[in-house]
Amino acid sequence: MNRLQLSDPMASHHHTSGDTNAGAVIRRHSRSFWIASRLLPTRVRGSVHALYAWCRTVDDAVDKAADKEDAERILNELDDDLDRIWQRQTPLHSASFWIEPLIVDRRIDVKHAKDLIVGMRMDLHSFVVTNPVDLHRYCYHAAGTVGLMMTQLMGVKDPVADRYAIALGVAMQLTNIARDVREDAECGRSYLPGIADPLSQPPPVVRSAVKVILEDAERKYEVAMAGLKLLPRDCRFAIRIALSLYREIGRQIQRNGYEVLSGRTWIRKSRLMLVLAVTSIRFIPQYFQETTMRDTKISQVSTVGQAKHVVYLGLSLTAIMATALFVMVFMNPKDESYSYLPLVYSGASLFAAIVFNRLAASKVFESTGLMSLTAPSVSRSE
Predict the structure, then answer these.
(1) Is residue 278 part of a domain?
(2) Within a domain: residue 129?
(3) Which of 51, 62, 77, 32 is nearest to 279 (CA)?
(4) CB 298: neighbour CB atoms within 10 A?
(5) pTM of the predicted model, to two decimals?
(6) How many folded domains does the chain comprise?
(7) pLDDT, tens digit, 9 for 90 and up, residues 110-138
(8) DSSP secondary structure of 213-236
(9) Residues 320, 261: one domain?
(10) Are 130 and 153 in contact (CB under 8 A)?
(11) Can you tell me the distance from the alpha carbon of 99 to that of 113, in angstroms, rounded to the nearest whole number?
(12) What is the span of the domain harbouring residue 327?
């Protein structure tokens, strides 16, 4: 089972020379997460790549081990390494060096890392999913734990955020389950509640089960969306992009009539770019709109003020679209010589969008006499 796109693993549990760079691991094996991670601030990005690389190795322990005994040995070694790291001892498995500084610096809770390994043991010992409770329990261990560690790496301290982090991880895992029904069945596993072998079931039964799972995933994506506001401002856009790109997999399965037995569903690159652009256009205005009108109704707007507002708003939206375009060019450069130039242009466009957005808002306040609402009141009674 592929946990959050942690697939296409290494031939053995020891890193090859090409896998010593955590950023290279995520770039090679997860297009969606690589795109989203490029949008994370530098203070977080390296740690996220390291966490991804470690999680992927844990995933490989089950999926690519020589046999069940070898898988158990690798999982035990990775699990014991977490204890060694916590006790300030040197870990044995090479992948453990990725997660070591995250635990030593108390940037993640080692309990969540251990819970992830529990999820892999559930796979190894053919955990049977008989009902939605079993399914959610498995999804928590396989991916909800990753969501919790991600929020910690971003610096979130509010425990209220845990619910939303788990929801996003579980939603992504449910999407994985729907996408990989045939692949899992060929490995002797099934995560469809009450269906032990999807390949022996009539296709309508499997499609119905997949539909239920994706509807559950959609509800959890909505919960996760509501929790984005709890993330640091410089991380929200990247997580929103990751959510949208992953969510699109489920929506493509829906467009295909929930037909998953014919093989894995893939999203075309052009479709991913469209999702990226649409998400950017929808998200950026909300992100940078800091001025609220509260419950005030705008009853009268002068013609001049209204015209200026419309012009500035139009310029702001144009700059937002330019930002999305330059980001797409940066993510998929046609020429290596582009380097970081598109990112510079996107930054300039984003700055222009903010300026024009603020000007548009100020013209509304100015023309309606509401400027006083934004100014601090001064008490003269002191």
Answers:
(1) no
(2) yes
(3) 32
(4) 12
(5) 0.74
(6) 2
(7) 999 999 999 999 999 989 999 999 999 99
(8) HHHHHHHHHHHHHHTGGGS-HHHH
(9) no
(10) no
(11) 9
(12) 292-374
Angle between helices 68-86 and 96-104 (to 10 degrees): 30
d(CA 256, CA 210): 12
Does the CA dihedral 165-102-7-267 come out positive or negative?
A: positive
Q: Residues 104, 33: one domain?
A: yes
Residue 153 forms part of a structural domain:
yes
Q: Which residue type does 373 have?
A: L
- The pLDDT score that the predictor gives to residue 318 is 81
- Do 259 and 296 share a domain, yes or no? no
Closest of 242, 193, 250 to residue 218, by C-alpha: 250
The residue type of 124 is: L
Q: Which residues of the chain have pLDDT under 70?
A: 1-20, 23, 27-32, 284-306, 309, 331-340, 357-358, 360-382
> What are the structure tokens assigned to 165, written together?
């982090």
CA-CA distances (angstroms) from residue 98 to 27, 103, 270, 291?
Answer: 16, 10, 33, 42
* Per-residue pLDDT at 375: 35
- Residue found under tokens 């989203």: 36
Of residues 66, 40, 69, the one with CA closest to residue 52: 40
CA distance linking residue 121 with residue 169, whole number of Å: 18
- b or e along 32-63 (b: 16 or more beta carbons within 10 Å of the residue's beta carbon)? bbbbbbbbbeeebbebbbbbbbbbbbbbbbbb
Tokens of 166: 């788990």
8 A C-beta contact, residue 363 and residue 305? yes
Same domain, 234 and 101: yes
Q: Which of 252, 267, 282 is where one domain is finished?
A: 267
User: Is residue 334 a part of any domain in this protein?
Assistant: yes
* CATH number of residue 128's parent domain: 1.10.600.10
- Residues 170, 225: one domain? yes
CA 41 – CA 22 distance, rounded (Å): 16
Does residue 133 share a domain with residue 62? yes
Q: Are residues 171 and 307 in the same domain?
A: no
Structure tokens at 120: 């892999």
> Could you tell me which residues come within 8 angstroms of residue 208 by beta carbon, excluding any fewer than 6 positions away?
258
